[in-house]
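tool_call predict_complex ligand=flavin mononucleotide
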Amino acid sequence: LRRSSVDQNIRQQGSFSRRVADTLQQAWSEHNPGGAVVRRDLIADPLPADAWATGAAVRGLPAEQRTAEQAAASALAASLAGEVLGASTVVVATALYNFGITLHRKNWIDLLILDPRFSPGSTPLAGRPLTLVVARGGGYGPGTPREGWDHATPYLRRIFGEVFGADVTLVEAELTLAGSVPAMADLRGVAAESLAKAHELAAVTGKAHAALVGASV
Ligand SMILES: Cc1cc2nc3c(=O)[nH]c(=O)nc-3n(C[C@H](O)[C@H](O)[C@H](O)COP(=O)(O)O)c2cc1C
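tool_result ok
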């Protein structure tokens, strides 16, 4: 009975996405006492930046023909893949940085796909619940000046939902900078509403995913 969580935020304190993920984890744990939680922090504990290229260059090469470095890259990919596959439900908490995803997140995804179990077409997380928690400083909704500028969320949905086949729940908190940026002061009410909704959905989702674990055992 495991749940896996993958954070990727440059700050530990005051992080909205971490707090929303915490709400989900709390609800899940409350309704699934004894269930283990594995938490991977891609910023505090970064994955080696060169492992993916090293492993990808020798994809398909028999193990005995690989150098120690190449074997280590495959082993890292296998261990990350095993961590996700071993979880009954997965939470990915992320922030929007510079209109896209960070190299940390991309590296983790690329390493997962390096493992043969995650090869495109194999939908390794078919039907598995996965929650994508996204915090964004600005607003990107329909009709806003920057509609379409969030290049992180659509990519992550594509990868987790369509490439990996997971059953994705998106939990979003927008305008998180409104509280600290004076020019966004008018948006504080909308931001607070967005955050409250995110926590609410996170709690409901954590509970629902805990029930799924119970149902499948
Ligand atoms: C270096 C940096 C780049 C950022 N780029 C964007 C951006 O492109 N769009 C946006 O809406 N917010 C941007 N933000 C704001 C963050 O998305 C926002 O503060 C978010 O709440 C951070 O996640 P956290 O609260 O979980 O730490 C950026 C923040 C930092 C520090």
